[in-house]
Design a protein that fits this description.
Layout: E1 3-7, H1 14-23, E2 27-29, H2 32-42, H3 53-68, E3 73-76, H4 79-89, H5 95-107, E4 113-117, H6 133-149, E5 153-157, H7 162-171
Parallel strand pairs: 1-3, 1-4, 2-3, 4-5
Helix pairs in contact: 1-7, 3-4, 4-5, 4-6
């Protein structure tokens, strides 16, 4: 089963790219962290990312979505992104995150080629995305270092027109 990861800093355009790939007929899997944040905020926890348990909530939803995914698809982030997030937030990787990383490595869950969606030069704040552009740049570097350390090969997708970015992704897959 072919599972490609789209990763990058907050606000880099991953979700828009995912939407376009979906419109073109490709199966996609939504980012878990944004949905965890939305639910936690609806439950009255305004900044759930300040609690180390936040990482395990993301991991659980990522695993649920990954297991439910059928056939070849594109994932908006992966547990490796969650590892990078834990590092960025200053949290030790939880036993749940470590176990998930061990599982996906042993099962070869994701393709080793990962699409790194480069930042657009700005960040638009949302209820879930409260990161400054400067912090997003630091987080981008943590992602790069984490994925490389974990043995993934990054295919950099530079800023540009959305359709051109989608074409660059598809040129590096058998889906062209």
């Amino acid at each position: 089963m072919t599972r490609y990861i789209l990763t990058g800093a907050p606000g880099a355009g991953k979700t828009a790219l995912l939407r376009l790939l979906e419109r073109q007929g490709h199966a996609v899997v939504e980012e878990a962290a944004t949905d965890v944040i939305a639910l936690e905020q609806a439950l009255g926890r305004d900044q759930p990312w300040t609690d180390p348990a936040f990482i395990d909530l993301i991991v659980a939803l990522q695993r649920q979505r990954q297991i439910a995914a059928q056939g070849a698809c594109f994932f908006d982030r992966s547990p490796a992104c969650t590892w990078a997030l834990a590092e960025f937030l200053g949290f030790e990787p939880s036993p749940g995150l470590e176990a998930e990383m061990t599982r996906i490595k042993a099962e070869h869950t994701y393709e080793r080629r990962v699409f790194f969606i480069e930042n657009l030069g700005f960040v638009t704040p949302t209820a879930a995305r409260r990161i400054s552009y400067e912090d997003a740049l630091r987080f981008e570097q943590v992602h790069i270092e984490t994925y490389r350390r974990l043995g993934y090969d990054l295919v950099c997708i530079p800023p540009g027109e959305l359709e051109a970015r989608a074409d660059q992704v598809l040129e590096n897959t058998p889906f062209q």
